[in-house]
Amino acid sequence: MGEDTKTRVKESQEEGRQEMWRSIEIVGSVEKWASTVVVGDELNFIPPLNFAMVDNGVFRSGFPHSANFSFLQTLNLRSIIYLCPEPYPEANTEFLKSNEIRLFQFGIEGYKEPFVNIPEDTIREALNVVLDVRNHPVLIHCNRGKHRTGCVVGCLRKLQRWCLSSVFDEYQRFAAAKARVSDQRFMELFDVSSVPISFSCSNKV
Amino acid sequence: MGEDTKTRVKESQEEGRQEMWRSIEIVGSVEKWASTVVVGDELNFIPPLNFAMVDNGVFRSGFPHSANFSFLQTLNLRSIIYLCPEPYPEANTEFLKSNEIRLFQFGIEGYKEPFVNIPEDTIREALNVVLDVRNHPVLIHCNRGKHRTGCVVGCLRKLQRWCLSSVFDEYQRFAAAKARVSDQRFMELFDVSSVPISFSCSNKV
C-alpha cells in the first residue's frame, strides 16, 4: 500500500471515529469483526452452519463445532447466546474459556409443530443481551440456526422497524423447507414495546 | 440511560477505538450502519429484496425501489455497486444524488444457463471497489440479488478464506431454487491471487 493511500485511509478513519462518537448510543462497539483478506488459495475457514452477520457486532448461526473454532476466532467474539437447554459440550466450553467469551444460555426447547410454545419472556431476555453493546460482538445460535435463532433475530428486526414481510423473508431464507407458521405468528404477535430500550440503543429514528 | 451505564459504554467505546486503530488496515470504516431501534410498533422499513449484511460496511440486495429508500438511508451508504448493464432509473439516480452516494456500475449481462459467460475481469474490478474501505458503507446489487451479486460475494468469501462448501451454502441461501452450477463453478475457479490486496486490507491472517 503506497504512502498516499495510507494517508487517505487514515483520514477517512479519523472522520469515522468522529462519526462513531456521534452515534455512540446507537451503534456501540462495532469494530470487532476483522475481515481477514489474504493472498493465497488456502480456503480453510469453516463458518458454522447457517452463519450470517445480522448487524454490526451481531452474528447468527447453527451449533458451532470444533471445525468452526478457527473461523469463530476471527470474529473476536465477546459473548455467545445459546438458545438450547442441553449443556454446552466440553470442547465448546474450553473454546469459550481460552478466548474469554461469555456464555449466555437460554434453554428454549426445540418444539416441533404443532406442539409449540415459544417462551416470550425468554426471547425478551435474550434480546436484552443482544441489544447491550457491551456484549458485542455476540453470536446467537441454537442447534440449526433456523427456528429459535430465527425468532430472536426476527424480533430484533421488528425492533429495527422492518416490515413483517421482510422479517419473514429473512426467517425463511434460513429456515427454508423447515419454516414454521407458528414461529412467524410468534414474531407477528411479539410486542416490541415490551423490550425496554435502554442500554446503548437510541429511541430516535 | 443512567449515568453509570453511560460511563461504562464510553469506556468500552474507548477500548473499541484503540482496537480499531490497531486493525485499521484490516477493517477500515465500519461504524456507519446505525442500528435504528425504536419504541413503537410502526413497522415501516422495507429492505430491498434479498437484503443482507455481508461484512462490516458491505451489504447486498436485489434492485432497490423507491419503497426501499427510507430503509437504505439508515445505512448511510457511501457507494453502490450496480452489476447490470441497464441504465439506473431516474428515481434511483435522484436518491443517490440527494444522499451523496457514488454509483459504480459494472454492466454484467444476466445470462441464463447454459449460455453463461461471467466476465471474470469485471467481477475482479467490482471486488476492488468492494475491498476499498473508502467506498464503505457499500451496497452491492443486481436485479434479484442472486446470481451476479452472489458471484461477487462468493469471490469475496474466497478472499476471506471461507471453504468452498460454505461459499456455496451462502450463495444457495439467496439463489434458492434459482441456484446455478455455472455460477458455483465460476466461484470455484476464481483465482483469488488475481485480486491485488492493496487498499486497506491486510495480508495477515
UniProtKB/TrEMBL annotation, chains A, B:
<dbReference type="Pfam" id="PF03162">
    <property type="entry name" value="Y_phosphatase2"/>
</dbReference>
<dbReference type="GO" id="GO:0016791">
    <property type="term" value="F:phosphatase activity"/>
</dbReference>
<feature type="domain" description="Tyrosine-protein phosphatase">
    <location>
        <begin position="50"/>
        <end position="203"/>
    </location>
</feature>
<dbReference type="InterPro" id="IPR029021">
    <property type="entry name" value="Prot-tyrosine_phosphatase-like"/>
</dbReference>
<dbReference type="GO" id="GO:0005737">
    <property type="term" value="C:cytoplasm"/>
</dbReference>
<keyword id="KW-0378">Hydrolase</keyword>
<dbReference type="InterPro" id="IPR016130">
    <property type="entry name" value="Tyr_Pase_AS"/>
</dbReference>
<protein>
    <recommendedName>
        <fullName>diphosphoinositol-polyphosphate diphosphatase</fullName>
        <ecNumber>3.6.1.52</ecNumber>
    </recommendedName>
</protein>
<dbReference type="InterPro" id="IPR020422">
    <property type="entry name" value="TYR_PHOSPHATASE_DUAL_dom"/>
</dbReference>
<dbReference type="GO" id="GO:0052847">
    <property type="term" value="F:inositol-1,5-bisdiphosphate-2,3,4,6-tetrakisphosphate 5-diphosphatase activity"/>
</dbReference>
<dbReference type="InterPro" id="IPR004861">
    <property type="entry name" value="Siw14-like"/>
</dbReference>
<dbReference type="GO" id="GO:0052845">
    <property type="term" value="F:inositol-5-diphosphate-1,2,3,4,6-pentakisphosphate diphosphatase activity"/>
</dbReference>
<dbReference type="InterPro" id="IPR020428">
    <property type="entry name" value="PFA-DSPs"/>
</dbReference>
<comment type="similarity">
    <text>Belongs to the protein-tyrosine phosphatase family. Atypical dual-specificity phosphatase Siw14-like subfamily.</text>
</comment>
